[in-house]
Automatic annotation (TrEMBL):
InterPro entries given in the database record: Glutaredoxin-like, Glutaredoxin-like_YDR286C, Thioredoxin-like_sf
Segments traversing the membrane: none
Listed name of the protein: Glutaredoxin family protein
Organism name: Streptomyces machairae
Pfam families documented for this protein: Glrx-like
């Protein structure tokens, strides 16, 4: 799907994935932001535990928490609320 088509999607047709692990304070902070923005916009989101998926572990271990928007990496470590909102609505 071309990027221009993705941008024109309504927020509820998007998907945010938060990749983290238990007992990670940055992951907890990221989840608060993801929940807030996704709840406000009606965007579905999911949480994936990096310890439960060897491929995610190999790919993202040094970057967690990682946020994906529609499967593409959006950010890692710290989630900026305004930047995530813009990515989902812009």
């Amino acid at each position: 799907m071309p990027s221009s088509s993705r941008r024109s999607q309504v927020p509820r047709d998007r998907l945010v994935t938060l990749i983290g692990k238990p007992d990670c304070h940055l992951c907890d902070d990221a989840q608060i932001v993801v929940e807030k923005v996704c709840d406000e916009l009606g965007v579905p989101w999911e949480l994936k535990d990096i310890n439960q998926d060897p491929q995610l572990h190999d790919q993202y271990w040094e970057q967690i928490p990682v946020v994906l928007v529609d499967g593409a990496q959006h950010t890692f470590w710290r989630v900026n609320e305004n930047r995530l909102r813009k990515a989902l609505t812009g």
